Structure formats: C-alpha cells, structure tokens
Amino acid sequence: MTRRLENTASGLATAASILRAGGLVAFGTETVYGLGGDATQPQAVARIFEAKNRPRFNPLISHFPTAAAAFEQVVPNALAQRLAKAFWPGPLTLVLPRAAGSTVSDLAADGLATLAVRVPRGDAAQTLLRLTDRPVAAPSANRSGRISPSDAAHVLEELDGRIDAVLDSGPCAVGLESTVLDISDPARPCLLRPGGVTLEALQAVCGPIALPDTQSDAAPLSPGRMLSHYAPHLPVRLDVTTPRADEALLAFGPQHGSPAALVWNLSEHASLEEAAARLFTGLRTLDGEGARRHLRGIAVQPIPEQGLGLAIRDRLTRAAAPRPGASSGHAYSIPAT
Ligand code: TXA
Ligand code: MG
C-alpha cells in the first residue's frame, strides 16, 4: 500500500522520516512528480530503480534545498554559480564534476565522474528537502519509458503499491521536466535535455550552447535521452493540420469545429507555458479515453519550436518514436488524399 500524505507539517515530517529511513516517497516539484529516495543510501537508490523498472545504467538527479547544499556534492565553476543565481530554485539541472567528498552513492551517480544536481522550486519540495537534510535522488515518478506524472493521481496510477508514500502537493506548475545542462566543461556548455528553462534564457547567461542530436539515441551521454520515452499506448502522429474523425487530437491554439472524436487543447490561446503544464495530463487523458473508444491514434497539431516549444516537441517526438523491440514505428501516417 502506498500512503497518500497531505502537504501539511505532519505530512511533510512523515515524508522526510520515510526518506531518512531509506524508504521511497514521491513528491511534487515545479516540473513533475519525483520518485524520491536518499541518494546516500545505495539500498534506497536500488529500490527506486526497482519501483520504476528502470534500466540500471541511468544516473539520477540529486535534489537539494539550496545551491550551497548542491555545491557541496560537486565542483562548481564560475558558470555554475551564475546559472544557480539566475535559475535556482527552478527547473534547471546542472551536470558538474562530482566532488571528491561527495556522499551521493555510486549507484545514484551510476559511477560517473559527474553528478546532476538540481534545486527545485515549490514550497512542498523545498520543505521536504530541508527536513530530509540529505541529497534526494528523484527521477520522474513513472514506470520507465512511460508518461511523466504531473499530479499525485498520476503517480498512484503508475506506482501504487511499489513505493511507501506520495506527498500530494497538487498539480505541477511547469509540467515538463527540468532542462539538463552539462557544464562540466564550462567552455562548452551542452544541452542534454530541453526542459522548463528555455534555451533562449540559458543562452542569455551562458552564450552559445551545444545542442543535443534529437534524432539519435545518445544513450551514454544522457540515458534519459532514449528515443522512445514518454510513451502512450496509442500511436502518435505529429504536426497534423487536418485531424480525422477517428483520432484523438492534442490541439494547440483556437479550434473551430475540429472533426476529431476527442480533443484535449493544450492551450486555446496558444500559450507555450500553459501547453507545457497541460502536456502530460493531456497525453494521459487522450491515451486512456482514446483506447476505450477504439480510436486509431493521437494526432498532434503543430507546436512552434521556440521557448518551451522546444521541450514540448522533444517529449512529443519521443512519444511518437519506435518502441524498443517493436518491429515498426509507433508514429503513423495517413496518406494524402
Ligand atoms: O524535472 C526533473 O528533472 C525531474 C524532477 C523529479 O526533478 N526529474 C527527472 O529525472 O526528470 P529523470 O531521472 O527522469 O531524468 C534525469 C535526466 C536523465 O536524462 C539522465 O540521463 C540525466 O538527467 N542525467 C543524470 N545524471 C547525469 C549525468 N551525470 N550526466 C549526464 N546526464 C545525467
Ligand atoms: Mg523521466
């Protein structure tokens, strides 16, 4: 049984004591719900992988209440200090050389010479991390390869019975995972995953940033980059301008009598912030309801590639990508008539 804890002083205290005892607690951050475990206890970290069914070669992000706490575990350079000042607490993860005295277990860091650290925003996450007073490893609280959870009900759909508790702090404000930036070589910042902090905002602080190759499975660099990820059960068709009656539609912008059988509008007035916050719930809803109604797939309207659109498109491209072991792609197309 997974306990549902309220976002109250006693709920937070219980959550922190479960974490300190080596248990697993999912908690809301501004991005998505994380599946938290004490990063310094290898058994707790092993339980995270087990609960998620996650391949063990994936390194985890360690979470901290402050930049000062994060920078005890890594070797921060001047760029890290500037980025922390500009974006923490907030949806940015920095990959830096691991400090010699780091207490984060090898299992959480996957034995790498670098460590991913993040200071999330949001009162519940902040208080929980402060009370726990340990680095907290937290991948998104979904089964490996599935859609990330942006509220506590999604966490229970994925992990009920597999974790000790979920701390319910309501829906996540940003709704997309953090941006992961590798600055272990500050002369060459490299974007490993687009996310809640836009590339434009980062470039204003860092200058030029090397971009990920979204077409390839750059597994060794950042295993979360696996091409098939965020996978709904229904196939996904991208950049659709004319949806069909037998499709579920993930819409963006004003709709004028769409023929689609089922519509989830990411944002009526084409706001990328609103679209990001509604993305994972929309995919989950269309997937469940669309399958019940025997629809052929999920059609996605075009989404601009600037600002948060880069991260939204990245997640949708992965949702449409071929699944490991599948003989054909999960994307489908409809011949032009
Ligand atoms: O918003 C988020 O980042 C959420 C919340 C819960 O904080 N967490 C999250 O964790 O998305 P996860 O495990 O699903 O994604 C972590 C990403 C993966 O792509 C992983 O490969 C990458 O960070 N990563 C972690 N440590 C790394 C390292 N040392 N070098 C390169 N990439 C790393
Ligand atoms: Mg994830």
Characterize the structure shown.
This protein is α/β, with parallel strands linked by helices and 337 residues long. The protein has two domains: 3-225, DHBP synthase; 236-319, Rossmann fold (3-Layer(aba) Sandwich), CATH 3.40.50. The chain contains ten helices and 14 strands. α1 crosses α6 (123-132). The relative contact order is 0.15. The structure holds threonylcarbamoyladenylate and magnesium ion. Threonylcarbamoyladenylate binds at residues 29, 31-32, 34, 58-61, 93, 95, 112, 114-116, 118, 120, 138-140, 177-178, 180, 192-193, 222-225.
Write the layout of secondary structure elements.
Elements: E1 3-6, H1 9-20, E2 25-28, E3 33-38, H2 42-52, E4 61-63, H3 67-70, H4 78-87, E5 92-97, H5 106-109, E6 114-118, H6 123-132, E7 136-137, H7 152-159, E8 165-168, E9 179-182, E10 190-193, H8 199-206, E11 236-237, E12 247-251, E13 262-265, H9 272-292, E14 297-300, H10 309-319
Helix pairs in contact: 1-6
Bound molecules: threonylcarbamoyladenylate (TXA) and magnesium ion.
The site of magnesium ion has 4 residues, from loops.
